[in-house]
Design a protein that fits this description.
single chain; 10 helices; four-stranded antiparallel beta sheet; 290 residues; 4 strands
């Protein structure tokens, strides 16, 4: 197979169908720009969720009947549980000191005694702040001593997970719609090009040309269109983030930039893949029909 011939034919096909190719590149460009913007915001949102999850803490309060030595032993046992990243023991004296620092009053002078319980503050390992994992972990902690009082913001975490699932489905749906639109437009352009050259394709088939030899120029044509769309979209998103947003909204730019750096090359690659996929689908249908 002469690869140079296939590349030449693929590029000349774009030149022979300038208007459909331009429309396809334009549709792909705007679709990928939207996808790039949405993907950047989505990735930043998921990073924010992970950051919130990493700050989830459990507070375990011990019963008043438990001695200092028993509390220390129990803290060491809790530290051994899978999912616990860090455990900070708070004695009755530490709790009284925190009360004085926060409220400016000495609880012992007010009440004549220290009623504040001993406790331990737990920071969780990654992946253990999900509701199911937390329920399992709190159950394991409760098994160590049934007098423990375990507290965390369960309502907030449940709402966070619901919003995360909803946003995930919206992201998938939006990305799917854009991908399908780009594939359809690329395939439409390739089918027009194949229809215009149908007699040549039939002649090539009659003289023994393989389906791969016939298809390759059109796959290259679709790949070029997808690559151009993806490159232009990546450049447009870059200008929007690195020039406009960085200049006028630096705080938002700082939040979105880590995700944007991943999106730039992804748009180019995604545009290429969509172009090839749309071409392959259209070529397969055309050759099967003929």
């Amino acid at each position: 197979m002469d690869l140079a011939y296939s590349i030449k034919e693929g590029l000349s096909g774009i030149g022979r169908a300038k208007l459909p190719a331009a429309v396809t590149v334009a549709v792909g460009f705007f679709s990928l720009v939207l996808l790039g913007l949405f993907s950047t915001v989505s990735l930043s949102f998921f990073d924010l969720i992970q950051e919130v999850r990493s700050r989830v803490q459990l507070e375990v309060f011990f019963s008043d009947s438990m001695s200092e030595e028993q509390a220390v032993v129990l803290v060491n046992r809790i530290k051994q549980l899978r999912g616990i990243r860090e455990a900070t023991y708070v004695s009755k004296e530490d709790a009284a000191g925190r009360f004085t620092k926060e409220f400016g009053e000495d609880v012992i002078k007010i009440l004549g005694t220290n009623p504040l319980p001993r406790s331990v503050t737990l920071r969780l390992a990654p992946g253990y702040s999900l509701p199911d994992s937390l329920d399992h972990l709190t159950g394991r902690i409760q098994e160590l001593d049934y007098g423990l009082d375990i507290r965390y913001n369960q309502q907030f975490l449940s709402a966070l997970e619901q919003n995360a699932r909803l946003f995930t489905w919206l992201t998938m749906g939006f990305g799917l719609v854009i991908s399908v639109a780009t594939v359809v437009m690329t395939g439409y352009t390739i089918r027009l090009a194949m229809y215009a050259r149908r007699e040549k394709i039939r002649t090539m088939s009659l003289v023994g040309a393989t389906r791969w030899f016939i298809s390759l120029p059109f796959l290259i044509e679709g790949a070029v269109q997808g690559l151009v769309s993806g490159g232009l979209a990546a450049f447009a998103v870059y200008l929007l983030f690195e020039q406009v947003l960085h200049r006028y909204e630096p705080s938002i730019h700082q939040i979105l930039q880590p995700s944007a750096l991943l999106v730039y090359p992804a748009l180019v690659l995604f545009g290429l893949l969509l172009g090839v996929f749309g071409s392959a689908l259209s070529v397969s249908r055309f050759l099967r029909a003929s």
